[in-house]
User: Which sequence fits this backbone?
């Protein structure tokens, strides 16, 4: 894989451009007291979307790629949550919020389509080690309070 093949992937391009918009349109509007908290969280989550797509794209086995796309989708949702907070606290205007919200929803649709494509095409299905699965036994999740 190369950066040239990645640049042909539309979902990566849109996610990268989304992060650039967040950097240019949101971060400068945040108050100084948010420089080390909300600002940093938005930076990491917004750039994580395209970074995870890129990392998955560089994998040979489709299930690895799908897993990184799920991570990208999670980072996108995190970014949209931060943007909602920024709008509701008055840090960003409605026009910026609505534009980025719409862009995020479009990227999510593209990611879902890309994930479906990867699952259907099963690229790398016959790579060495592709058929090995690692599973851990999980403890049941108990929501009942313990009695003393």
Assistant:
């Amino acid at each position: 894989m190369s950066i040239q093949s990645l640049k042909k992937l539309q979902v990566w391009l849109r996610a990268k451009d989304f992060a650039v918009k967040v950097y240019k349109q949101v971060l400068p509007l945040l108050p100084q007291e948010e420089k080390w908290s909300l600002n940093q969280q938005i930076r990491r989550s917004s750039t994580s979307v395209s970074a995870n797509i890129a990392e998955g794209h560089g994998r040979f086995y489709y299930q690895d790629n799908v897993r990184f796309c799920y991570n990208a989708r999670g980072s996108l949702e995190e970014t949209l949550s931060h943007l909602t907070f920024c709008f509701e606290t008055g840090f960003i205007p409605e026009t910026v919020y609505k534009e980025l919200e719409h862009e995020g929803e479009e990227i999510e649709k593209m990611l879902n389509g890309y994930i479906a494509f990867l699952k259907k095409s099963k690229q790398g299905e016959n790579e060495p080690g592709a058929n090995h699965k690692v599973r851990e036994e999980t403890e049941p999740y108990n929501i009942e309070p313990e009695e003393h």
